[in-house]
Specification:
The protein is of the alpha+beta class. The protein contains 4 helices and 7 strands.
Length: 155
Amino acid sequence: MKTKPIAALVIVIFLFPVIFAQASERCIMCGMDALKSETKFIIEITEGNKEIPVGKYSLCCLHCLVILKARMHGGKIGSILVRDYDTVTGKYDSGKMIDAKNAFYLVESQARPKGSMVPFMLIFSDLRTVEKYKKLYGGKILNWVDICKYTNSSQ
């Protein structure tokens, strides 16, 4: 009879961290829950430094990516994925992740994505879709090179 409570305790001890990690994915720069961000980024650091070692990290928005790039000091970023705003639903961590370098960015619009900081932007995989959002909310459409210039960050 005593084995059931012990087994339950063991299950809770070992599964709680896994469940908690899946329910919360913190931005490496600001600590916000990136799962809840409609502008989530996932980056892979291929050459790190003392402050940011090699690995994959979540960011809540482009603002935090700009800060991370400034702190890289000779490190290198490999892949950068970002959430396609048009595929986001009301559920946490929804939305298809796409290559940030192939995405289209709608900046200076009236739309404010959830879980993001300035500069507010919507990110899309398809030019036609971003043009529809521009008609609704105004703003400018930028590509990856232009968004890096817009934020004064390196590619």
